[in-house]
Amino acid sequence: MYDYREPWKIKIARVINAMMEEAGAGSISPESVIAEIPPNPEMGDIGFPMFSYAKALRKGPPQIALAVRERLEAEGIAAGVEAQG
Q1: Residue 82 falls within a domain, yes or no?
Q2: Gap between the Cα atoms of 34 and 75, Å rounded
Q3: Domain span at 51
Q4: Is residue 40 assigned to a domain?
Q5: pLDDT mean by block of 10 residues, the chain; 85 residues
Q6: pLDDT recorded at residue 76
Q7: How many C-alpha atoms does 58 have within 13 Å on its Cβ side?
Q8: How far apart are CA 85 and CA 68, in angstroms?
Q9: Residue 33 and residue 35: Cα distance in Å, rounded?
Q10: What is d(CA 1, CA 43) in angstroms, rounded to the nearest whole number?
Q11: Is residue 36 part of a domain?
């Protein structure tokens, strides 16, 4: 069965790594990206908590999520991505 989370984990890791490089921080692997199903269907089909990147990026999870969304949308990868939390 196809796991739709894996391609998204790769995309999220790529964006987070670009942000970490800009911040002079380390890097992450796609395997370390947490993909979860939101508890409420109104929150979407898949979620990626940003808490684990806050210290390295020196930003709060909402700011990180917003930056990830903006980068994905700028690349035309995802329309309708929302930063929640």
Answers
A1: no
A2: 22
A3: 5-74
A4: yes
A5: 86 96 94 92 89 95 94 82 69
A6: 85
A7: 6
A8: 14
A9: 6
A10: 24
A11: yes
